[in-house]
Each structure stands twice: as structure tokens, then as C-alpha cells.
Write a structure and sequence with these properties.
This protein has one domain (2-265): 4-Layer Sandwich (Nitrilase/N-carbamoyl-D-aminoacid amidohydrolase), CATH 3.60.110. The chain is built from six helices and 16 strands. The protein has helices at residues 15-26, 49-55, 63-75, 116-119, 148-156, 173-184, and strands at residues 2-7, 33-35, 78-87, 90-99, 102-108, 129-131, 136-139, 161-165, 187-191, 196-200, 203-206, 212-214, 220-223, 230-235, 245-247, 250-251. A six-stranded mixed sheet has the order 5-4-3-2-1-14. A six-stranded mixed sheet has the order 6-7-8-9-12-13, covered by helices on one side.
């Protein structure tokens, strides 16, 4: 299957324009699965919860989901994209999986980063894997990468590919995702953004780009640069993610000893 990664630079708050630009950019992309950044349609640096409420949309009935649904249908492809979700009085930093037949599922960000804790409600979906026939898809969002339990949990649930919409501002993630792929034997697809936002007094965020596809042995298959909007596509063999052998005598999952891992789920 062919995976595409989209790296954008949205104009903050111009949701309709950002979606229109993404559809225009992606219309020519031939890929079975496309991964887009976190909050691709709104921008990232909200200054209040009230502001994000004005830009958040319902999933899957909102205009962004409808546009992505149409794109997925026209291209007979699957698309993972990040957006702010409105659900009653709750606001979530979410990612949506859309397919040729429409809405498949969503994930709400588990680990909120910095000021996100003032803006969004903590995600409550937990981690799930979606079977799209050609592959099993897991989703995590940006700062989730810092917690190895997220990727491990998705891998244990059977994910072949971890789709990772992101708006990264710290310098560590791209390198760390090589380890996430290696230690779980999965492909990881991180779609980041570029540009800067300076909407809070004295705080400028610079997004690091470097969107990348990493194979099941932790090798970078394709990576975009740190400054420019762009799209990359790469073909993968999903079956490689289902072979968890490390050596002739070692298996990544069968060699685990969960009876000694209780500390991993205890609060410090």
C-alpha cells in the first residue's frame, strides 16, 4: 500500500481556507492512506477555551469532516486528520479516520501538552485499532509520542501502522519515533506542520516540520524538510509489521514478561 504524508502551514482561524487548500493539495496525491497534521484546519495556538469553542466542529457532521469524506470517496482512499472537536460542552483535540465509505472512527488526544490543558478536555476514547482491510491502523496525536505506553498499546492491539498527526515544537520526536517503530515492530507515520504562531504575549511557537514515515525496524523511509509545506508518498509492505521476530530465537511480543510490568500502570 502507498502512504502519503501532508505537511502544512495553516492560517490561524481560517478554517474554510485551510481545508480548501488541503483538498486542493491532496487532490493530486495517489495514496491508499494519507496522514495529515494535528489541528490542520484551525492552527494550534489558541488563547482561550472560548476561542477554540468558536472554531471546533462536530465529528462527523461538521464541514471539515464532510470535505475530507468527499475527498476520501473521490480518491478511494483513507485519510487521518487532526481537528478540534465539539461535543456538547466538551472540546477535544481529536483525530478522525475517514474512508471511501465515510466516517470510520475518531481518537481524542490522551496526553495534553502545556497550555492545551487549559484549552481542551482530556481525551476519553482510549486507544483503538481500526481495520481498513489492507492494514490495521492505530492513531495517536503529537505529545502522545512521549509516552511509550501509547505506541506499545496500539501495537499490542494489532496495529500495523501508527498514524501520528502532530504540531511539534520540541526537537525530540522525529528521532524518538524511530525507537517507537523499532520497539513495536510497526510503521509510524508522523504528519507535522511548519511555520510559526505568536498569538500569546511573549510566546512564539516554531513548528519543526520533518514529517516522516518510519519502517518496522526504525529506519526512515521518507522525510520532509523542516521549513516547507509538502507531500511525500511511499510504498510499504504491511506484512512486515506482522512479523515480530527479532532473531531466530526472539520474538518481540512472545518474549515479553507482563507479570513483571505492574509498575508500568501504577501512579507515581
Amino acid at each position: 500500500m502507498i502512504i502519503g504524508l501532508y505537511q502544512n502551514n495553516p492560517d490561524f482561524g481560517r478554517t474554510e481556507d485551510n481545508v480548501e487548500k488541503a483538498v486542493e493539495d491532496l487532490f493530486r496525491v495517489d495514496a491508499d492512506l494519507i496522514v495529515m497534521p494535528e489541528l490542520f484546519n484551525t492552527g494550534y495556538q489558541f488563547i482561550s477555551r472560548q476561542e477554540v469553542k468558536g472554531l471546533a466542529e462536530k465529528i462527523p457532521s461538521g464541514p471539515t469532516c464532510r470535505s475530507m469524506r468527499d475527498l476520501a470517496r473521490q480518491h478511494d482512499s483513507f485519510i487521518v486528520f487532526g481537528m478540534a472537536e465539539k461535543d456538547g460542552d466538551k472540546i477535544y483535540n481529536s483525530a478522525v479516520l475517514m474512508g471511501p465509505g465515510g466516517f470510520i472512527g475518531k481518537y481524542r488526544k490522551t496526553h495534553l501538552f502545556a497550555e492545551e490543558k487549559e484549552i481542551f478536555d482530556p481525551g476519553n476514547t482510549g486507544f483503538h485499532v481500526f481495520d481498513i482491510k489492507m492494514a490495521r491502523i492505530g492513531i495517536m496525536i503529537c505529545f502522545d509520542w512521549w509516552f511509550p505506553e501509547a505506541a506499545r498499546g496500539l501495537a499490542l492491539l494489532g496495529a500495523d501502522i501508527i498514524c501520528h498527526p502532530a504540531n511539534l515544537v520540541l526537537p525530540h520526536c522525529q528521532q524518538a519515533m524511530l525507537t517507537r517503530s523499532l520497539e513495536n515492530g510497526v510503521f509510524t507515520a508522523t504528519a507535522n506542520r511548519v511555520g510559526t504562531e505568536s498569538r500569546r504575549d511573549g510566546e512564539t511557537l516554531t513548528f519543526t516540520g520533518g514529517s516522516q514515515l518510519v519502517d518496522n525496524f526504525g529506519c526512515v523511509m521518507a522525510r520532509l524538510d523542516t521549513d516547507n509545506v509538502g507531500i511525500i508518498t511511499e510504498e510499504i509492505d504491511v506484512r512486515k509489521a506482522r512479523d515480530k521476530k527479532i532473531t531466530a530465537r526472539n520474538d518481540l511480543f512472545r518474549d515479553r514478561r507482563p507479570e513483571f510490568y505492574a509498575v508500568l500502570v501504577q501512579k507515581p
